[in-house]
């Protein structure tokens, strides 16, 4: 059944090679279930619903995966990428550390806690994972420009991946974006275009460009079904790093909600393929109160998400109209989890808490996740005895403003030993 | 009242491939009625069986997301530009 004919303008100029998408076989509408062929399609023509990649997996063994590269490409058979993906130039993201967070666990009152620290990716956020898969799809589809609307992490990842691959990139940002964020993408010699408007205006323009311009891959628009699959690798890695085991419960930050739903998909695929034992797991979502449409919908018992105007310092989570919001609600309800939120003060305090206890400096999204974990525990929703994983999706060096008025020198003294000694004695008395 | 409506690629089969059409009406609902009159079948792709905006469609009157300005009752001034956009583009980050 052929139903999606989105973006015929952006169709590949030449035929797609055999095996271009590995074990992926089709795209399927998550709303109405209509199937369509693999291509630069992202919305169902029947109902506008988002398309998702479907697969026919062969037998895949732990041994084969473990013999692969120390990057997301060790899971290539589970992604919509060709078998020879590791031979192409990309940022080779993934296989970030899973930190045994016993000090934070003690501080929170949890028996066993792990932090999946995705700030260790090449451009310091989980976005490198999704962009690497989007880059592969763009290459295989013959698209020549890698592009995105973004205010931060995604722009960094797109600009760096395109530089590494040697293809053109275009990054659209709001004109009032802070200089440090502009520089962090512009350094890769991307075509950075400042748009006079809000992020929502930029996003809308990107969608229109994706529909009109030939040969462009907007990573989170017209190749979004492939892009989003990259987040499954967070789930695969957590399970592999735990010794091929799925944790009892996991807390995941929610902006569009794609990361949460894809980690769930990753866990379910591992179970289906027999790579891990089938066991129950509980998934929790974390939002900032100033942009918490999914948490609000969860509490109201709704199965739809009413959009909000974001007002939070957690910019990387500030999506007022999250595309995957309804699916986040489905996942947390199916697994027995919840979606909670914390305010900006609390998230900043929890950036400090993670740094103080584990030596991990998280961006604002990480503060949200730690803060929500504490809130879920105090509310009795998170089981303190169960093995828990939380995601830190980005690096605190990207959101220094969040803590700039909270930490700094303990004291300023003249360069004399007596001054130091007086301070030190007082501080330790 | 006459408005300009930007048609997404996904719906251009209804407009003979045209990306921008005109429609009449002083509210979004009336504009969609007018659109349906000129391009039969298109409204059912934008609205669900209950007559509400589909979950994954974003409609803008001018620069405003209609979900913030009254939905189908959103007022449409003479010469306004209306955009219909698939909502799958997730936004900034995660």
Defining key terms:
heterodimer; A: about 425 residues; alpha/beta; Rossmann fold; six-stranded mixed sheet; four-stranded parallel sheet; 14 helices; 13 strands; disordered N terminus; B: about 90 residues; alpha+beta; Ubiquitin-like (UB roll); five-stranded mixed sheet; about 15% helix; globular; disordered C terminus
Report on this structure:
The complex is a heterodimer of chains A (429) and B (94). In chain A, 35% of the residues lie in helices and 14% in strands. In chain A, helix 8 crosses helix 9 (258-272), helix 9 crosses helix 11 and helix 12 (344-358) packs across helix 13 (364-378). Chain A has helices spanning 62-66, 102-108, 127-140, 153-165, 179-186, 199-212, 224-229, 232-241, 258-272, 293-299, 325-335, 344-358, 364-378, 417-427; strands spanning 24-29, 35-36, 51-55, 98-100, 113-117, 145-149, 168-174, 191-195, 216-218, 249-253, 282-288, 339-342, 388-392. Chain B has a single domain, classed as Beta-grasp domain (Ubiquitin-like (UB roll)). Chain B is 16% helix and 24% strand. Chain B has 2 helices and 5 strands; from the N terminus they run ββααβββ. Chain B has helices at residues 28-38, 43-46, and strands at 2-6, 20-24, 57-61, 64-65, 81-86. A 5-stranded mixed beta sheet of chain B has the order 2-1-5-3-4, covered by helices on one side. Residues 90-94 of chain B have low confidence and may be disordered.
- Whole-number tally of structural domains of chain B: 1
Q: Architecture of chain B in CATH?
A: Roll
Distance between the termini of chain B: 41 Å
Record field, number of beta strands of chain A: 13
The biggest beta sheet of chain A, please?
A: 6 strands, mixed
Structural class by helix and strand composition of chain A: alpha/beta
The CATH homology group name of chain B = Beta-grasp domain
Q: Give average pLDDT of chain B, whole number.
A: 88
**Could you estimate the helical fraction of the residues of chain A in percent?**
25-40%
Within the largest sheet of chain A, what's the order of strands?
4-5-13-10-11-12
Biggest sheet strand line-up of chain B: 2-1-5-3-4
> Would you tell me which CATH topology of the largest domain in chain A applies?
Rossmann fold
Q: Outline the low-pLDDT stretches of chain B.
A: 90-94
Give the CATH level 1 class of chain B. Alpha Beta
């Amino acid at each position: 059944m052929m139903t999606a004919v989105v973006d015929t303008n952006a169709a590949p100029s030449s035929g797609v090679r055999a095996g271009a998408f590995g074990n992926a076989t089709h795209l399927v509408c998550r709303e109405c279930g209509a199937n369509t062929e693999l291509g630069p399609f992202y919305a169902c023509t029947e109902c506008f619903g988002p398309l998702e990649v479907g697969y026919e997996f062969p037998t895949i063994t732990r041994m084969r995966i473990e013999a692969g590269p120390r990057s997301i490409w060790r899971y290539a058979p589970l992604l919509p990428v060709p078998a020879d993906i590791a031979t192409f130039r990309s940022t080779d993201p993934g296989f970030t550390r899973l930190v045994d967070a016993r000090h934070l666990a003690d501080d929170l009152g949890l028996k066993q806690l792990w932090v999946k620290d995705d700030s260790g990716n090449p451009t310091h956020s989980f976005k490198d994972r999704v962009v690497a898969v989007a880059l592969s799809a763009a290459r295989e589809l013959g698209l020549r420009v890698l592009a995105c609307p973004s205010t931060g992490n995604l722009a960094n990842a797109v600009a760096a991946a395109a530089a590494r691959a040697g293809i053109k990139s275009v990054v659209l940002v709001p004109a009032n974006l802070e200089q440090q964020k502009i520089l962090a993408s512009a350094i890769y010699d991307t075509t950075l275009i400042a748009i006079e408007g809000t992020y929502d205006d930029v996003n809308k323009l990107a969608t229109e460009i994706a529909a009109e311009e030939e040969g462009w891959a907007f990573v989170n628009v017209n190749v979004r079904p492939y892009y989003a699959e990259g987040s499954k690798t967070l789930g695969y890695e957590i399970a592999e790093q735990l010794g091929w085991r799925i944790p009892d419960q996991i807390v995941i930050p929610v902006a569009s909600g794609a990361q949460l739903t894809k980690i769930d998909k990753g866990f379910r695929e591992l179970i289906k393929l027999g790579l891990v034992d089938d066991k129950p797991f509980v998934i929790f979502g974390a939002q900032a109160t100033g942009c918490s449409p999914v948490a609000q919908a969860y509490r109201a018992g709704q199965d739809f998400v009413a959009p909000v105007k974001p007002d939070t310092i957690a910019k990387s989570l500030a999506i007022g109209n999250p595309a995957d919001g309804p699916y986040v609600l489905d996942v947390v309800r199916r697994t027995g989890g919840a979606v909670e939120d914390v305010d900006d003060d609390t998230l900043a305090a929890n950036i400090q808490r993670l740094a103080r206890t584990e030596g991990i400096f998280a961006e604002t999204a990480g503060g949200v996740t730690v803060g929500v974990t504490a809130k879920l525990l105090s509310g009795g929703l998170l089981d303190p005895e169960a093995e828990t994983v939380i995601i830190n999706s980005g690096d605190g060096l990207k959101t220094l403003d969040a803590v700039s008025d909270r930490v700094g020198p303990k004291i300023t003294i003249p360069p004399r030993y007596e001054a130091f000694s007086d301070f030190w004695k007082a501080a330790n008395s | 009242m006459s408005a300009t409506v930007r048609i997404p690629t996904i719906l251009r089969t209804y407009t003979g491939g045209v990306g921008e059409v005109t429609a009449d009406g002083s509210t979004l609902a009336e504009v969609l009625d007018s659109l349906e009159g000129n391009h039969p079948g298109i409204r059912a792709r934008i609205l669900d069986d209950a007559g509400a905006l589909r979950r994954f469609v974003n409609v803008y009157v001018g620069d405003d997301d209609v979900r913030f300005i009254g939905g189908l009752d959103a007022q449409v001034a003479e010469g306004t530009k209306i955009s219909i956009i698939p909502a799958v583009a997730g936004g900034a980050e995660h």
